[in-house]
Design goal:
64 residues, mainly alpha, 3 helices, globular
């Protein structure tokens, strides 16, 4: 098996990305494990920076 440090998301659909973000938030809120919320925030921060928008605008874009 090949090893890798990073995974590309360029082929992931908007719906799948929104589902991942929402699942991390739901899991974090319901398990009280802050690592899930931290991961969601980190992913959202990175993606919104790549899109040159703020996090709220990026979430709105994913929901369209």
């Amino acid at each position: 098996m090949r090893e890798f440090d990073k995974i590309s998301i360029q082929e992931m659909s908007k719906d799948d990305m929104l589902l991942i973000i929402e699942a991390l938030e739901y899991t974090g809120n319901n398990t009280k494990i802050n690592d899930f919320i931290g991961l969601k925030n980190s992913i959202l921060k990175e993606l919104s920076a790549l899109a040159e928008s703020n996090e709220k605008e990026f979430l709105e874009y994913l929901k369209k």
